[in-house]
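Quick start: what a row looks like.
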Amino acid sequence: KFSPDHVKCITSWTGPEGSNQDFSNDSTALEVKTTKATAPSVNISNELQLDWTVLSNLYLAVIHVDEINYGSDTLEKLIVQIKEQINNQPNLLLLFDDKLDRAGIQIGEETNYNKISYVIRSKKFYRIKDGFPVLINSTINESAIHNVKYQIDVSSIEDFETDFETIKKDFI
């Protein structure tokens, strides 16, 4: 479901701009990991991605999906739905198109994303804080070790689970 505050939603999508997290707003950030339903872990792409120490709040969303060929819930359909909701705000539509382009989907190419559909099997949300199993600059020798990639077993972070409403309050 889309938020009525379209401007805040689209401007907070900072991943295409090279941010360490997918969404950020003031000193709160959200990293979204989507994985196949059978995967027990998520991939973390660098030591800054889950570094909560520089933020007021950092959340991790883990979404397990199944892929279906030629289903109804495609990336193209999602892009079209978002554009329909903001089509009366030309500057916001331009910003959204620019972010899509930076993410690798050029204007008009969303039609190339209509063959694979995704069924969401589960969505879980976690608050990253002290004790969460992460590698961050302060726990590694940042001058010698960098560009760290690692995996987190989702079953090991259940104690950090939160709900989407908590995250939404921090963003909107």
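That is the whole record. The helical segments are 6-12, 75-86, 90-102, 164-171. The radius of gyration is 17 Å.
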